Amino acid sequence: MTGITRKEDWEQFRAMGRAPEGLRDVVLASWQRAARQDDLASRTRAPLVSGDAFAGLHQANRDVLGAARDHLARNLALMRASRALMVLCDPQGVVLEADGCPAVIERARDDRLLLGGCWDEAAIGTNAIGTAIHTGQPVEIRGAEHFCEGIQKWNCAATPLRHPVTGALIGVLDITGPSAEAQPHAAALSLAVAGQIVQTLGQDLAQERAWLLETLLLQRVAGDFILFDRFGQRISGADLAGRAGLPGLIRALARQPDAPDLDALAEAVPGAEAQILRRGDAALGVVLRLPRAPLRRQGAERPALAGRGDDLDALAATSALLAPLCAQGRMLLEARVPLLVQGETGTGKETLARALAGSVAPEGPVSLVECSALAETAADDWPIAGGTLVLIEPAETPPEAQPLLLRRLKALAGNGVAPVRLIALSTPDLAAARDAGQLRRDLFYRLAGAVLRLPPLRDRRAEILPLLRRFAGQAVEGSRRSPLRFTPAAQRVLEAYDWPGNLHELRNVVLSLSALSSSRLIDLPDLPPEMTQPRPPLRESALRDRARADVLQMIDETGGNLAEAARRLGIARSTLYLKLDSYGIRRR
Ligand SMILES: Nc1ncnc2c1ncn2[C@@H]1O[C@H](COP(=O)(O)OP(=O)(O)OP(=O)(O)O)[C@@H](O)[C@H]1O
């Protein structure tokens, strides 16, 4: 602890630039910065931002203001009793909130230690707010340690506030009182209240993250995704942190959700689709849906996820139900019978197709084609020299592209030199799509040489716990966290749940729980409420009515956009069409 800085010390420094003995380093460094600014010494009070600018700052800093509100109110009586003010500033030192002893407020008004006053060092020299911002450390500045004489009537103690997620400076909490009156605990109190505000902000943000995860779970997102909060921090999903500028892009997206820079995003993650998640008017996060493997050209390198021979063995070993499917699939594919793999979303159709392709033709390329993206003219780059062609959702092939698809398939079959193996993956019943006139009959018979049906997870309950453990392990890969464990009660609920989104849903639930759990042990209260709340038994007709109501509500919510409605329901578009048909609803 060093001695008290007297007015003479400050005058000596001003006149001769000589630092008084015992002056604290933090004060000396700040004085030297201030002395380099020509016009600063003559300032008598802090500058004021305009009313409009202040309103903008209030809005921009609403998170920290919201987190601070209760703490400021709770300390008001103490501030009044100790003849002091508690002041909250933004990261540039502009006062956003100030309250305390009325007599002190009156005096502080003259110096503009009030809403909109700017207490940055560059604006009014050495003071606790400005110096805490400059150094990033808590600091106390007493009486004559202030560089501008007009504000030497104050003692102030300030603590920088740091964002609980990003660590960025988000404001300053300051306690100021007259220098003639001792404020022995001001520094400690400023430190304590600043800590409480940051803690509350952290809790608010944790709630936001939980809301984002729940929202995503309810949407039953199929396929791979990455969920970000509005600060560009990844909450769940694949780690693409290495992609240049991705967090910045996500922050920009969440800040300006109505004019997203989709070009920049497409450049960072080609083919990804961004959806802003909003609660009321506030954009709280962004989910990036990652593209499926794109169309692969002949001879293209095998996709990273491509199956290998041992993948099929591993898949077969998962359950007694998958083993015969894997064995039959392999024999059929070896005999070049076109395979149709049929199953609800997330039952593992693509995984099975890749494993089959890898086991039968380990060296050949695996080419995936999204049939919904086929156009009348765009199939020239199909592989025709061996390998496996996987057609995803053939029922979604636009009608105008179906003749071309048929011609292509005929050509592939007739290529005796290096014939292509064919696997089609369909979520809706492809025969029903054929009967509904959605898919040409000749196309259907060319694709469905043999049908492999992947049952939904609710009919493969023996796989649930092993999958749970596998996904829990995947969730912590590359991190120091330990895999989640599940209490017996939680395991029973998870095993009994119906999993309408199948493995996608199971994986999403485990990834989300893993991201949120600090204890690493999941019990009943941690599970999504829809799993633990008892549901009254419904008769079949009531079930159908409810499903119909859900579908219609989603279509309503998406303004009639069927593709979007299907995506949010977690079903293929063709399935939605079939459902609408079965409800007797005509679509445009
Ligand atoms: N046996 C398995 N073990 C572990 N993970 C699996 C297994 N089978 C599938 N998965 C994972 O489950 C998810 C769903 O699998 P997949 O994408 O193959 O299903 P799908 O039926 O093709 O889904 P969709 O109809 O939505 O395209 C994927 O994340 C996949 O990696």
UniProtKB/TrEMBL annotation:
<protein>
    <submittedName>
        <fullName>Transcriptional regulator of acetoin/glycerol metabolism</fullName>
    </submittedName>
</protein>
<dbReference type="GO" id="GO:0005524">
    <property type="term" value="F:ATP binding"/>
</dbReference>
<dbReference type="InterPro" id="IPR002197">
    <property type="entry name" value="HTH_Fis"/>
</dbReference>
<dbReference type="GO" id="GO:0006355">
    <property type="term" value="P:regulation of DNA-templated transcription"/>
</dbReference>
<dbReference type="InterPro" id="IPR003018">
    <property type="entry name" value="GAF"/>
</dbReference>
<keyword id="KW-0547">Nucleotide-binding</keyword>
<keyword id="KW-0067">ATP-binding</keyword>
<dbReference type="Pfam" id="PF02954">
    <property type="entry name" value="HTH_8"/>
</dbReference>
<dbReference type="InterPro" id="IPR002078">
    <property type="entry name" value="Sigma_54_int"/>
</dbReference>
<dbReference type="GO" id="GO:0000160">
    <property type="term" value="P:phosphorelay signal transduction system"/>
</dbReference>
<dbReference type="InterPro" id="IPR025662">
    <property type="entry name" value="Sigma_54_int_dom_ATP-bd_1"/>
</dbReference>
<dbReference type="Pfam" id="PF14532">
    <property type="entry name" value="Sigma54_activ_2"/>
</dbReference>
<feature type="domain" description="Sigma-54 factor interaction">
    <location>
        <begin position="305"/>
        <end position="515"/>
    </location>
</feature>
<keyword id="KW-0902">Two-component regulatory system</keyword>
<dbReference type="Pfam" id="PF01590">
    <property type="entry name" value="GAF"/>
</dbReference>
<keyword id="KW-0804">Transcription</keyword>
<dbReference type="InterPro" id="IPR027417">
    <property type="entry name" value="P-loop_NTPase"/>
</dbReference>
<dbReference type="InterPro" id="IPR058031">
    <property type="entry name" value="AAA_lid_NorR"/>
</dbReference>
<dbReference type="InterPro" id="IPR009057">
    <property type="entry name" value="Homeodomain-like_sf"/>
</dbReference>
<dbReference type="GO" id="GO:0043565">
    <property type="term" value="F:sequence-specific DNA binding"/>
</dbReference>
<dbReference type="InterPro" id="IPR029016">
    <property type="entry name" value="GAF-like_dom_sf"/>
</dbReference>
<dbReference type="Pfam" id="PF25601">
    <property type="entry name" value="AAA_lid_14"/>
</dbReference>
<keyword id="KW-0238">DNA-binding</keyword>
<dbReference type="InterPro" id="IPR003593">
    <property type="entry name" value="AAA+_ATPase"/>
</dbReference>
<keyword id="KW-0805">Transcription regulation</keyword>
